[in-house]
Amino acid sequence: MYKVILAGGMASGKSTVSKMFEAAGGLRFDLDEVSRKLLRPGCECTYRVAEAFGKDLLDPDTNEINRRELGRRAFATSESAELLEDLEMPFIREYMRQFLTKEAPVADARFCFVEVPLLDRVEDLLELVDEVVVVVAPLELRAKRAEQRGSSRQEFEQRIAHQPTDKYLRDQADTVFVNSGGLDELKAQVELWLNARFNQHLEQ
Ligand SMILES: CC(C)(COP(=O)(O)OP(=O)(O)OC[C@H]1O[C@@H](n2cnc3c(N)ncnc32)[C@H](O)[C@@H]1O)[C@@H](O)C(=O)NCCC(=O)NCCS
Ligand SMILES: Nc1ncnc2c1ncn2[C@@H]1O[C@H](COP(=O)(O)OP(=O)(O)OP(=O)(O)O)[C@@H](O)[C@H]1O
To answer: Where would you find this protein in the cell (predicted)?
Structure first.
């Protein structure tokens, strides 16, 4: 199984590339999705996070955690952002390792990829993959795309302050997709990549 890490900062275009990879037969594993699973009602991590950031974050009827408010509290200072990561990252890393070493090798797919927002936190796991692909785009454009998707400028700034820079991502990358134009331009880069690796084309 050919294993890929797909990395990029907030609103760079990872999920957009992911959809194209999936359409071409790639098996996806998304670390943001793992963090959503970790914070489901009744999970150990949810309980620990509520202990640390306030039990009022839990809905008294459903035990659902208020993610938006948690995000506000967590990204308010560097210390609180680090605290949230300390609670979630060990689980996230373990799920990623498990996927790459146990699930991916026996999966029925052309290739597999892990969508990673914070590449520096899993740097030691890069040895488990064949290729690192990163998606980059100018910061202003990303801020605009994030805003169109419902994040405020402040939320964008607070999150990217804790994310690796594009320089770091480019230094780690085997392949860089530059998402500074339209979707067709991004698609053309993905097409070239698929073609070179698997002699594969995206369906029109
Ligand atoms: C704080 C939480 C609850 C906010 O949830 P919400 O649904 O509002 O946002 P979502 O998860 O969709 O993320 C929005 C954007 O923030 C980015 N982001 C998430 N966590 C972090 C972080 N610790 N540092 C920087 N950026 C982050 C995401 O990659 C994405 O670009 C959630 O992001 C979370 O649990 N984060 C901590 C887990 C983590 O570090 N995940 C990254 C996986 S490597
Ligand atoms: N080339 C493009 N042209 C126009 N819109 C785009 C382009 N690429 C991505 N977008 C839009 O920008 C937003 C962010 O893209 P996407 O969700 O793929 O980024 P992401 O890196 O997965 O973000 P996050 O990790 O923050 O969830 C989405 O609404 C997406 O539809």
So the answer is: Cytoplasm
